[in-house]
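[stage:ingest] chain + small molecule (fe (ii) ion)
[stage:ingest] validated
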Amino acid sequence: MITTYKARQFNLSNLKGISDETLEMHFKLYEGYVKETNKLNEKIADFIKDGKVDQEEFAEYSELNRRLGFEYNGMVLHEYYFDNLKSGGGTGDPTGRAGFRQAVEESFGSYDIWKADFVGIGKMRGVGWAICYEDPSKGKLSNHWITLHETGNVAGYEPILVMDVWEHAFILDYKPADRPKYIEAFFSNIDWSAVERRLHRGTAQSIAA
Ligand SMILES: [Fe+2]
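[stage:predict] done
[stage:export] tokens:
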């Protein structure tokens, strides 16, 4: 039985500093990842339907499986990214009582230190993502650079805040060298309530030593 994924619809008009044209283009790219994920799953299912992978099929079968991580993460990370943006723009940095703010204070010492790290990762040279993850077993947050879509994700960790820094995320609005301006725009559009809902930890729970 093959799982077929359906591209989700997102209503993200009127963001601050990220144009509707950028989003339209970005949604199309996302739909491409959903399509490719489905296609790969179908092709792989076809290879294995007789219960074995023949030696002469092995090179093609291997290549399809190597591409799975790229397409799956391309699909899923875009969903996290669009879900943590707020139509019409966000409200800026989260308040002192917010669970996310408490979580970063416990993990990084302060919100500003966490933000400096997350933004710094977002400015790294290369093609990829900046992601703040939660270790669900400890409630600890950490920021990670993901190359392309699949290299650097930490097994078992949950994405809490996901920022696409591929050039396609901002090239219609900013020059490649102006990625920092896009990152600023991203921060002004974060849906912190969506971020909060991803946290596993209770807000009062302390990080286990
Ligand atoms: Fe993207």
